[in-house]
Amino acid sequence: MFNRLKKNVIASLIVTLLAGNVLPSQADVADSLPDIGTTAGGTLSINQELQMGDFYVRQLRASAPLINDPLLNQYINQLGMRLVAHADSVRTPFHFYLIRNDDINAFAFFGGNVVLHSALFRTSDDESQLASVMAHEISHVTQRHLARAMEDQQRNAPLTWVGALGSILLAMANPQAGMAGLTGTLAGAQQGIISFTQNNEQEADRIGIQVLQRAGFSPQAMSDFLQKLADQSRFTSKLPEILLTHPLPDSRLADARNRANQMRPVVAHSSLDYYMAKARALGMYATGKNQLGDDLLNEWSNGNERQQQAAQYGRALLFLEAKSFANAKKIIEPLLAKTPGNVWYLDLMTDIDIGLNQPQLAVQRLSALKASGSDPVIQLNLANALLQAKQPAAASRILHRYTWAHPDDGNGWELLAQASAAQNLRDEELSARAESLALAGQLDQAISTLGSAGALVPLGSLKQARYDARIDQLRQLQQRFRQYQKGR
What we know:
It is an enzyme of class 3 (hydrolase). By secondary structure, the protein is an all-alpha fold. The protein has a domain at 4-217 and 220-261. It is built from 23 helices and three strands. It has helices spanning 4-17, 46-63, 70-84, 119-123, 127-142, 145-153, 158-173, 175-182, 190-214, 221-234, 250-261, 272-284, 294-301, 305-321, 325-338, 343-355, 359-367, 376-388, 392-405, 410-422, 426-439, 443-455, 462-486, and strands at residues 95-99, 106-109, 113-117. A three-stranded mixed sheet has the order 1-3-2, with helices on both faces. A hairpin with a 3-residue loop joins strand 2 and strand 3. The longest helix has 25 residues, at 190-214. The model is unreliable at 1-38, 176-196 and 242-249 (pLDDT under 50).
């Protein structure tokens, strides 16, 4: 059982090491920072960072409350990639994940992986504020701050440090499980990591605010968001998690404002997608009581056109969550008629169709769209509708293409397993379930499951060869991951 002091020490390590705080440090906006983020090459190559990122993402999938909502994931990745397109020193692909957590936080780690807590939708007033947090995290990645921290620690049992990182990541996403994992791994390295990363924060603040502006967002958004956090902390006995170990003095807010005010101003309006994503996150994924309340919906109803649409969408969403399908349909159907390509409305309308036991109507809606063959959200919705309409073979045809194009999306593999089971294709069901296990880092179970699939098909068949080849790939992955497991 951790006492309060030990929890605060660990929280400090977590926040500083993994960019959990977005607090700006003093910086001159005119600074042109050297590309010192690349100096970590002596410790880790980019390829090694990608491997480590893959390893830790699998651990998060297994243990963290990741939100596997295709609409929300598509939104945060599109927003993130808009920022990445305006960042310098991008050496890895980027992937953005959303965790169901009501504590305000975000963190970044190896291989271009950025994780956002769902509470950021509740706390941010507009899209620029949400983007400011993401720009800060992107900058930690482009400057390779974790690799540089490892380089600084390599003389002090680097594998132990690498092992601790897995527990730190888990603690950010799932505090109870993560803190249990930290007890045997931190040892004496934590003070060096904490002191090293103070400069990292300053660097990420400076670069992040420039990325924010270049991407077309308000550079004032960072200080606005931090002011909101500071205001919240004055009227509660429980500080936001992000401020527990990093107090926010007025001088730091002033520095952020001064830096932003020296930049070219940007008039940035939040997109309709932002409001829709906020409504969905608050209405479906708040861990406590429903946070999509009348106050917010009424405010939006009296706002601009995008907010008014989001208010209607939010009310329909609440009806859907309450299984009041007829009431949800009354709201969404006329909205969809006006904008038939709106994926937020379409996704909700097809869920309503299925709730009303009319899955074939959902199939017709989705099949009629020209984008049905390319938009990932529509593909998944169509496959699900076909399954509900008892057309698993048609669903499988879509899902085989989808999983080929999106092998890291567990939604596709889960639906493919269901479609295969409905057709009594046991080997294909096992193969799909093996991929889900592999995505969650359960490689032993994935290999065993693929072995069972191979035993069900004729000896020497193409299917058996495919299953055996995949087993070989997963064994190679196990071998690469073993060095990271040793340090745990």
